[in-house]
Fold:
Amino acid sequence: MNQLTEREYEVAALVADGLQDKQIARRLGIALGTAKVHLHNIYQKLGICSRVQLALAWMKHGERT
Structure:
């Protein structure tokens, strides 16, 4: 998770909390398309392909140290 930007980290946390893209965009005050781009970048950086995998990775490594 350390390779994520601050914004990507925020998006990952919200996905792990169960929010959908539209809810994430609203919560962060960004466009829906921007939220989707962040999510895509997260998937690329972590080598995953689903929200479930992201939630599992978050549970394992989500806390920044």
Q: What stands out?
A: DSSP finds four helices and no strands in the chain.
